[in-house]
Amino acid sequence: xxxxxxxxxxxxxxxxxxxxxxxxxxxxxxxxxxxxxxxxxxxxxxxxxxxxxxxxxxxxxxxxxxxxxxxxxxxxxxxxxxxxxxxxxxxxxxxxxxxxxxxxxxxxxxxxxxxxxxxxxxxxxxxxxxxxxxxxxxxxxxxxxxxxxxxxxxxxxxxxx
Length: 161
Hints:
The protein has helices spanning 22-29, 88-95, 105-118, 124-130, 142-160, and strands at 2-7, 10-15, 48-51, 54-57, 70-72. It is globular. The chain is of the alpha+beta class. It has a five-stranded mixed sheet with strand order 2-1-5-3-4, with helices on one face.
């Protein structure tokens, strides 16, 4: 079957089998390997992408659901238009050491951006609750929480510019 959707701001049309998962489509057909597959059961959150602005786990979502939709992956996360800067959440993760091996980072970032967009004034409890569906096997989460809070503050500051 053929589906058309907006991928990272660009119109995209692909032919696929109806049973294709979004994560498979991204990684194997579109060569966007930033979306990681860690569990295939929707438990780890490494595969989080934004579908029509909402975070979803792409390892259990069938690709035909993308038809007519807007999809944002980690590759589409960008800083301010016209700048060479990273997205404020990415910069916060770098600055506050919110990653170690980096495997969970794309999913953490996509979840964090959604959290900060939904609730700009995040508390530590909000962040810890919001990241419950994302597993990091390397860190103790403290630097991730600090990174998300700093990223949310930076996203708010960027809105005011």
